[in-house]
Amino acid sequence: MWPLSLSLPASSKLVYSLLTLGFLSLPVLSTHEATSPVVAIEQGSFIGSTDGHTNRYLGIRYAQPPTGDLRFRRPLPVEPYTGTIDVSDFAPICPQHLIELPSELPPTLDVGMTLRIVTGVYNATAPQSEDCLSLNIWTPPNVSGDSKLPVAVWIHGGGFQVGSANQYDGGILVRRSIEIGEPMIFVGLNYRLSALGWLAGKEAKEAGVGNLGFFDQRLALKWIQKNIQLFGGDPTKVTIFGESAGAVSVATHMMTNNGDHEGLFRAAFMESGSTWPVGDMEGGQRWYDDLVANTECADEEDTVECLRDVPLDKLRAAMDRAPAFFSYSALSLSWGPRTDGEFMPNSGRELLMSGNVAKVPTLIGTCDDEGTAFALGAANTTTTEELRDYLSTIVFPDATQSSIDALLEAYPEDPTLGAPFGTGEMNAISPQFKRLAAIWSDLAFIAPKALWAKKRADIQDTWVYVHKRNKNVAVLGATHFTDIFDLFGPSDMTDHFIHFVSYLNPNGGAPVEVQTVFDDLSTHSQVPLNIGGAVGWPRYNSATKLKLAYMAGSPSVSVVPDTDREKQVTFMMKFLEENQMR
Ligand SMILES: *[C@@H]1O[C@H](CO)[C@@H](O)[C@H](O)[C@H]1NC(C)=O
Ligand SMILES: *[C@@H]1O[C@H](CO)[C@@H](O)[C@H](O)[C@H]1NC(C)=O
Ligand SMILES: *[C@@H]1O[C@H](CO)[C@@H](O)[C@H](O)[C@H]1NC(C)=O
């Protein structure tokens, strides 16, 4: 067997055409000039690029273009590859939903951090195309078909409405993995967004075209099973990981198909997201009705079929009329995942409770102040009455008045109990801001995470963390997305993740003795577990409930009990048993 990853001079057009014509068989050349890595696949070959530290194969198509008659249909596997395919640069990203920041931002807002988050989530200048089902691969420079390295597959966030794999530099993780002697492969995948990937309404449900973004991701995971060995990866050692919408996606892949992961992955990492508290596709009917009305499809017999013929610009203008996730309605998503009866036969919470969940080692955690970024859009909500109205019309339109009253009581108008948590009277930019921020934090992220840990940790190796390194950011605190800067650092969080990918344990190969060294649990004393000079990250279980806290300053990590605001989080877990968003 010959090595499958080779080197060719980037400039050698002749070699490319010879390859295309089948005159040259591989392996061929190595030179002293800058070289382009090549991977032979089926009847073709991919020509990637290298920076000397990692090799990149970018914009690899994994599905047929979801355009023309394939728009609003489940993705089909890509046709066999033939000829020489240039994968040295990114392919276009999927059409993005129009994002508008709240028109009035508080003067004390940390503009630098806000810009870092917004540009991290969303690249406004990257070229977009409906033909966007591609993935990006980074590998160590000198791998071959029998390297059999573990593989980390990244599902990006962006509220199911924006974002792309292209803005996450997998090279940082791969380079670090080589440095610490645990080389791995990184794959980032693109999936359809906004209405194109997450149509709602009974017509879309009946046509079986809900949650297309999940189908795209699943197809990409199957592509990886089939092909990653050619790039030096081991298809039996895949870890899926994602943040926000990506983490919700990871949770869904663990629960779809009755929890049968079909060997597509052996470990999972959910960063700020797990089960999404939303109901059936019909709950999004109003967005579908608006969409067909604004594309002149409303009077057609088959409205989904009509939408396939609408020019993309017109379709986008219509889909953008529905609110995006930084707007007033925030995480009450217009276009997003919902129960479809098939990929998601039931709500995420019910799937989790059923126990049919992929039994793979799991990392799960959140930022401390997740919800602040999502409360900015409703900062004009200034009285309890207005908040009651907001919660019962925008967030939980199906909830009873008494449920909403109980929610308001559990999250009182007291800035010292709101998010950013633990900041006293500070950051109260409006009388309800910290209160709503606390509600968003718990309902979308922290309570679902707590329920996941509670249900799964005694069944399957689970490690839990909280990220608190940005607590001192004005107004936002340790808000959603701020841990990404560490994960793609590199930082200690990067290393924990790489260890997890390699050893199915964030502590790496060394066994970790779990010892309880807390003087007094009630004061949440933060005494690190000291194991061989490093802080060990104990497995979570329902008795000790220990998690890792990423801290600013010293110590930079601590092991703490997962009992922060236990009363509110427990309330929210209970509340979500009976209530969900539309
Ligand atoms: C955004 O996209 C542009 C165009 O492809 C690219 O040049 C730029 O590097 C991207 N920025 C980020 C932060 O990914
Ligand atoms: C790549 O080659 C370098 C230098 O020969 C070596 O140190 C490194 O371990 C190799 N990496 C892999 C992933 O094989
Ligand atoms: C706040 O702004 C939103 C969006 O413009 C509006 O719908 C809502 O009525 C406003 N709320 C209050 C209390 O003014």
Give structural notes.
The chain is an alpha/beta fold and 582 residues long. It has a single domain (38-99, 147-511, 529-576), classed as Alpha/Beta hydrolase fold, catalytic domain (Rossmann fold), CATH 3.40.50. The chain contains 18 helices and 17 strands. It has helices spanning 13-21, 111-121, 170-179, 194-197, 202-206, 212-227, 245-255, 285-293, 303-309, 312-319, 348-354, 372-375, 384-395, 401-410, 433-456, 484-487, 492-503, 566-578, and strands at 5-9, 35-41, 43-47, 49-50, 55-61, 82-86, 134-139, 149-155, 185-189, 233-243, 267-271, 362-367, 462-467, 530-531, 534-535, 546-550, 557-561. It has an 11-stranded mixed β-sheet, with helices on both faces. α13 crosses α14 and α15 (433-456) crosses α18 (566-578). One 2-acetamido-2-deoxy-beta-D-glucopyranose is lined by residues 140, 142-143, 178, 183. GO terms for molecular function: hydrolase activity. Belongs to the type-B carboxylesterase/lipase family. Residues 1-30 form the signal peptide. Keywords: Hydrolase, Signal.
